[in-house]
Structure to design on (1186 residues):
């Protein structure tokens, strides 16, 4: 098909040639590292500045950035609040330092990569103080030699840490390996360890001569640099709603899905995990904002992707930043309406070469199971049902093909299917032909089918990384392997990953670099296992008849050929026959960039990125003769999908501070994106043999089918962002982006998306300067718009195809039967379709208290989506054509996000950190297509709908009857409204023991007009709680996650409590069902009467709606880091061992397998049709750094 929008052909041609060549060059030069710098080269670096009466600390910070160096000092020795003034124009760093520091009696020296500031002997540590009030003079002789290492909370060794003997000027700094050594006069002193960004620590020397020290980082709220759209920004100057998750937090979650590691970590972000090995998570930022697609945009090292984070090794991720409101995400225009998740992978750092190896191994098991009936209980339920239906012992309809004809059920010894006879039950002489299902020995105790398909499964993961850097280059290379067997038999997932990132300073004005990541992921076995589909292996296992064993007496799979055994699939057979199925995803994602620095304040960056994703599947559906309803006949399906997307992004940045007060940052850019998607599928059937080598496409004899599609889309954009900062006190940001999408017709192609935000750091006002307990106080406000073009690539155009009977034409007077005889309309176009628009208003408050120990971030927002794009609904008379998406309505989300954290120390060795995030939102559909009474229904399940969307309700609200209890007497039935009365006005359903439905419209009868909205799947509160403890070399983290206020439709209760299923039932169906005797005796009754025909009780109603609230202990980890004095003997910098568990427990009232419903379709949100069981994972791990 033709792409109707051509986005800069020249750009795309250049990208195809230049991008490929540059990428290859940088891959092969990735490992080159520049020579270490020398002290003289460092001191000769040029520095320009114009400052007047500024604090020394601010001046050193400016020099640090411009000269690319780091300072280290002892706060008690050096007063950073001293005021200095200086004008310099490209002067040497040494000259600038001499002019600033000498008048303050401060010396400096070079130590590796650091400039160490020291007080001149004989001078006090503070202006106006003398030695007696401050520190003693240096001691030149020492009696005791002390050594040690200093690391951060993660055990990463810290270079440049100041180590000083308290009350003296004697001390040193740690080297590149975090080690230190110097002499002290005796063992009565106290060592002071301090480093910029960390809390100073004091340790008595005592009898120790070797020290292993852990420094705890101060709150990052002020100095933390956060990755934002097309750049970075200090958190203290942010005016939008932005949340970042660090590598340490992400590493605590042992899941192979990078997106799943966000669950419970960010306020306003909901993550529903797919527990299947290799499964993808469903991520929603601030709820559901559209009736259309609600997936966020992912940016990985500058490369946008529409296929999520599948294939990304989570261990390669350095940080993940979530842009939640329009003012933060508007820079991404049309793709940022559902939020933006910016992923940054690890890069090399200047310093010593580092080698890291992580290994972990563990086991998984199903976290819970359903309590199903055994064989005897099933027979008793069938007998109870017969009595409720008015049948009599031995009378018509009483006999059961398996349990007999007596007053009580009798379990048979054998199950004999049609075509076999009782004379063949002798196993030694049994001649019933293979492979057809034959005589089966009945399982009198009952087969636990859930146990038969689940197992304790191993999981193992290994990651190796090497990183380093010099003055002019850095690199990071990593390799990973994950092997996860499924807790469902014969399923599993393998992933192999490789990543290489590098940066090079070619000249003073040119930098180049690249990122490239490659993964191969294999999903093995029954591919459909784990989807929210009642046909999954889990669903089959739960509802299979317990009378049937796994195998018949010949060793074939047992099944339902015999009368009275139901119609279920043998799930063990299903999984076993699919064990060789393979779904392989190969993904290559990377970018190359070049940056030209015209001046220190003006630079240009060009980035070319690619995302190539190919998926190949080979699925065998083998014959299952034991199943009553079998239609499978050794079918082979092979498919391949290739998605190729590339982007060319060019940005120009200007950043300058005027008069030491006005900081202006301007970003302007242009971006082109093109995406191709090609799918091919071939199917063959009726293979006489099932050997893997034989089942190839050429050998297939029947049902030859070949299908293929190709489509593409393009996006072209201009954008600009301006940031203004007045003395770090008054902040302003304005953004505008213009997008042109090929998915719209020419008249509506362009969309404009502006945003504005402002901030006021009140803490910088003079009246708060002396409030010692207040570290930061900032209020924020933002407004902005984003777009959404998530519709079909050819939504604006009517398309044709040459396939299917619809293409057959009467040509030359003869009816054609060839698929290439003509063309037919496949889809109708909508040239009037416009951009869906989302407008967000956000108010925020950031507070940091108690010397950076307590931090709170609060955001209140209102999000309004208009011109929502949704498939048109027209009468069937329009024919079998795909209808286009049209602009149908409006939706609103209101909410609040809260993040709280507190960190402190108890005593000398116990450090703790407590964090919580909470999110509340309310979703309302304002209108649909201008018709206030229009209802759009969700997916149909067994001819019924459980969800609906209409004006005034949340999207995907539950829809059905209100169940007001159970009829207990005939008198209650007589007084109640008639259920679906016949032409004579007689009730066609009601009797004692059945559900009592509410007459909503008051017309005296129960009909479909009495259906109403009966619950919402949207939680009123989503939360995460985190506790981290560090005691000496021990560390422990506990993470809890949960939701409350939402409802869940337990659809599978329809299968396990009513007669739609002919297999097994929940155990409580026998013991808690209504019977006249139980009612008369006052026994516990929670379920209606069991009847042969209970179709009316199966209708969607409040009976199936349950609370979906839960609290889950998501992760627990405890670790121990071996003391450095021991690991040094092994030539290891750091060695940590740990134990980790996931999904340790869940507190919920939900009666299903898992209250966390994995339903990718937002139109059917919250409907549980069984999912992959929640796995409990227990692992042992080892981290080594060299």
């Amino acid at each position: 098909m033709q792409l109707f929008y051509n986005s800069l052909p020249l750009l795309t041609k250049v990208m195809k040639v230049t991008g490929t060549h540059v990428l290859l060059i940088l891959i092969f030069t990735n490992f080159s590292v520049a020579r270490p710098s020398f002290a003289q080269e460092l001191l000769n670096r040029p520095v320009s500045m114009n400052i007047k009466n500024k604090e020394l600390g601010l001046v050193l910070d400016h020099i640090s950035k411009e000269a690319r160096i780091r300072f280290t000092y002892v706060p008690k020795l050096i007063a950073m609040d001293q005021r200095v003034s200086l004008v310099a124009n490209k002067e040497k760093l040494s000259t600038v330092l001499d002019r600033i520091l000498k008048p303050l009696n401060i010396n400096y020296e070079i130590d590796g990569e650091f400039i160490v500031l020291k007080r001149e002997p004989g001078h006090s540590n503070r202006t106006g103080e003398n030695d007696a009030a401050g520190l003693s003079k240096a001691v030149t002789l020492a009696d005791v030699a002390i050594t040690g290492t200093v690391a951060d909370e993660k055990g990463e060794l810290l270079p440049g840490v100041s180590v000083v003997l308290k009350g003296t000027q004697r001390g040193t700094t740690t080297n590149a390996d975090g080690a230190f050594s110097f002499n002290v006069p005796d063992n009565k002193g106290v060592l002071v360890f301090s480093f910029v960004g960390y809390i100073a620590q004091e340790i008595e020397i005592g009898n120790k001569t070797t020290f292993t020290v852990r420094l705890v980082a101060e709150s990052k709220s002020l100095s933390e640099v956060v990755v934002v759209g097309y750049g970075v920004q200090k958190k203290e100057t942010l005016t939008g709603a932005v949340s970042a998750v660090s590598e340490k937090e992400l590493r605590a979650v042992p899941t192979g899905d990078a997106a799943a590691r966000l669950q419970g970590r960010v306020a306003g972000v909901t993550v529903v995990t797919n527990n299947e090995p290799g499964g993808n998570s469903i991520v929603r930022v601030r709820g559901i904002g559209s009736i259309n697609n609600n997936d966020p945009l992912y940016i990985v090292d500058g490369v946008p992707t529409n296929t999520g984070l599948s294939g990304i090794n989570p261990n390669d991720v350095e940080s993940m930043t979530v842009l939640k409101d329009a003012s933060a995400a508007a820079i991404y225009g049309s793709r940022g309406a559902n939020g933006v998740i910016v992923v940054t992978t690890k890069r090399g750092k200047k310093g010593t070469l580092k080698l890291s190896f992580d290994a972990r191994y563990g086991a998984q098991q199903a976290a819970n199971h359903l309590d199903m009936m055994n064989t005897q209980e099933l027979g008793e339920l069938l007998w109870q049902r017969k009595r409720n239906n008015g049948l009599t012992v031995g009378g018509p309809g009483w006999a059961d093909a398996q349990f007999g004809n007596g007053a009580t059920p009798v379990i048979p010894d054998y199950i004999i299917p049609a075509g076999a006879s009782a004379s063949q039950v002798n196993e030694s002489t049994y001649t019933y032909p293979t492979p057809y299902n034959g005589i089966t020995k009945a399982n009198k105790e009952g087969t636990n089918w859930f146990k038969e398909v689940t197992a304790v499964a191993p999981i193992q993961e290994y990651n190796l990384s090497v990183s380093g850097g010099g003055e002019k280059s850095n690199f990071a290379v990593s390799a990973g392997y994950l092997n996860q067997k499924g807790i469902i038999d014969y399923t599993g997932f393998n992933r192999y990953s490789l990543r290489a990132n590098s940066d090079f300073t070619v000249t003073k004005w040119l930098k180049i670099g690249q990122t490239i990541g490659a993964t191969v992921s294999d999903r093995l076995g029954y591919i459909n296992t784990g989807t929210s589909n009642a046909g999954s292996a889990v669903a089959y296992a739960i509802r299979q008849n317990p009378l049937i064993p796994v195998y018949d007496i010949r060793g074939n799979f047992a099944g339902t050929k015999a009368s009275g055994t139901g119609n279920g699939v043998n799930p063990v057979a299903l999984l076993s026959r699919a064990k060789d199925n393979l779904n392989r995803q190969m993904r290559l994602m990377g970018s190359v960039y070049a940056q030209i620095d015209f001046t220190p304040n003006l630079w240009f960056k060009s980035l070319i990125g690619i995302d190539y994703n190919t998926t190949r599947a080979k699925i065998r559906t083998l014959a299952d003769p034991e199943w009553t309803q079998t239609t499978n006949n050794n079918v082979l399906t092979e498919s391949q999908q290739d998605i190729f997307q590339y982007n060319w992004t060019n940005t120009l940045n200007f950043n300058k501070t005027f008069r030491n007060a006005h900081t202006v940052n301007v970003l302007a850019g242009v971006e082109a994106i093109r995406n191709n998607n090609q799918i091919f599928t071939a199917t063959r059937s009726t293979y006489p043999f099932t050997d893997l080598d034989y089942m190839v496409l050429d050998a297939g004899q029947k049902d030859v089918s070949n299908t293929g599609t190709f489509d593409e889309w393009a996006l072209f954009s201009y954008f600009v962002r301006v940031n203004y900062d007045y003395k770090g006190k008054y902040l302003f940001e304005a953004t505008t982006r213009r997008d042109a999408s090929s998915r719209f017709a020419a008249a509506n192609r362009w969309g404009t998306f502006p945003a504005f935000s402002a901030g006021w750091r009140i803490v910088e006002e003079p009246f708060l300067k002396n409030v010692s307990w207040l570290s930061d106080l900032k209020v924020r406000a933002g407004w902005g718009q984003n777009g959404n073009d998530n519709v079909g690539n050819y939504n604006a155009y009517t398309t044709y195809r040459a396939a299917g009977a619809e293409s057959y034409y009467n040509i030359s007077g003869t009816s054609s039967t060839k698929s290439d005889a003509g063309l037919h309309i496949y889809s109708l176009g909508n040239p009037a379709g416009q951009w869906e628009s989302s407008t967000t208003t956000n108010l925020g408050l950031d507070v940091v208290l108690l010397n950076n120990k307590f931090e709170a971030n609060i955001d209140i927002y209102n999000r309004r989506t208009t011109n929502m794009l949704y498939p048109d609904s027209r009468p069937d008379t329009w024919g079998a054509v795909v209808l286009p998406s049209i602009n149908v309505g409006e939706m609103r989300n209101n909410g609040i996000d809260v993040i709280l954290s507190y960190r402190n120390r108890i005593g000398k060795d116990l450090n703790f950190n407590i964090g919580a995030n909470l999110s509340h939102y309310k979703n309302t559909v304002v209108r649909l297509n201008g018709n206030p009474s229009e209802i759009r229904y969700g997916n149909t399940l067994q001819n019924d709908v459980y969800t609906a969307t209409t004006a005034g309700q949340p999207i995907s609200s539950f829809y059905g009857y209100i169940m007001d209890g159970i009829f207990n007497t005939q008198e209650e039935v007589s007084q109640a409204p008639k259920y679906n009365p016949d032409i004579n006005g007689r009730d066609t359903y009601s009797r004692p023991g059945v559900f009592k439905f509410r007459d909503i419209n008051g017309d005296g009868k129960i009909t479909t007009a009495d259906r109403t909205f009966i619950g919402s799947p949207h939680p009123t509160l989503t939360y995460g709680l985190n506790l981290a403890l560090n005691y000496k070399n021990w560390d422990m983290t506990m993470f809890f996650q949960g939701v409350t206020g939402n409802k869940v439709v337990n659809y599978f209760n329809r299968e396990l409590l009513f007669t739609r299923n002919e297999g097994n039932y929940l155990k409580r169906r026998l013991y808690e069902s209504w019977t006249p005797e139980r009612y008369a005796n006052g026994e516990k009754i929670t379920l209606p009467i069991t009847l042969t025909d209970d179709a009316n009780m199966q209708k969607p109603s409040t009976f199936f709606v349950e609370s979906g609230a839960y609290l889950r202990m998501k992760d627990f980890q405890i670790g121990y880091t071996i003391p450095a004095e021991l690991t040094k003997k092994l030539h290891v910098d750091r060695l940590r061992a740990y134990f980790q568990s996931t999904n340790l427990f869940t507190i919920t009232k939900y009666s299903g397998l898992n209250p966390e419903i994995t339903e990718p379709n937002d139109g059917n949100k919250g409907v549980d049709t069984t999912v992959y069981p929640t796995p409990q994972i227990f692992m042992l791990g080892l981290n080594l750094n060299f």
The radius of gyration is 35 Å. The longest helix spans residues 9-28. Residues 1-38, 124-142, 529-534 have pLDDT under 50 and may be disordered. The chain has 15 helices and 64 strands.
